[in-house]
Design the sequence.
């Protein structure tokens, strides 16, 4: 420790890259990781509650509309298209990235439309959220997933309006939501 009037020692050299932190992990990506951690907690709690509730005697499984398979394919294709768009953007090819990112967004909207149609089919067959705990959980988990995907669509539109800045974070978010959907879909099929 320096004495009064002495110059403090110079900070160590060669630590941290010397660029003031700008070359490290971008702040928006850090924010996204925090969001994904929070969403993981939310969906993990829902999955845990679903599994526990499924074991009680009043649980009556819902029919699984075959449309859910098509919706899953649409979400997978959306994630792949966004990944392609993000890679093109990172390579400096924004013009080529835009159609891929837009296709990913359109496929995501197709997934959401398909989910709404699946809801409509189940409601039309008499499977309302209040009629059965399995129905309540189905609408809750698919609805929350859909709302988060819709939010991802808003973020994607914003990224495209900003010349692709944020496209990588959008792709990560959609990959995450694809993973969540695959877990939820497997859970729904198994109940």
Sequence:
């Amino acid at each position: 420790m320096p004495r009064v009037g002495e110059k403090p020692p110079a900070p160590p050299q060669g630590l941290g890259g010397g660029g003031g932190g700008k070359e490290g992990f971008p702040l928006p990506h850090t924010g996204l990781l925090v969001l994904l951690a929070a969403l993981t907690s939310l969906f993990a709690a829902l999955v845990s509650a679903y599994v526990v509730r499924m074991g009680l005697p009043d649980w009556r499984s819902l029919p699984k509309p075959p449309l859910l398979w098509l919706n899953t394919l649409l979400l997978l294709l959306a994630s792949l298209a966004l990944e392609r768009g993000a890679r093109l953007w990172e390579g400096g090819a924004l013009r080529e990235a835009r159609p891929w990112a837009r296709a990913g967004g359109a496929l995501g909207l197709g997934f959401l439309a398909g989910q709404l149609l699946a809801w409509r089919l189940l409601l039309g067959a008499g499977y309302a959220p209040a009629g059965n705990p399995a129905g309540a959980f189905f609408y809750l988990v698919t609805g929350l997933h859909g709302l988060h995907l819709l939010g991802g669509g808003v973020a994607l539109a914003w990224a495209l309006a900003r010349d692709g800045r944020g496209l990588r974070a959008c792709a990560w978010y959609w990959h995450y939501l694809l993973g969540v959907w695959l877990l939820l879909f497997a859970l729904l099929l198994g109940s």
About this structure: The CA atoms of residues 22 and 100 lie 28 Å apart.
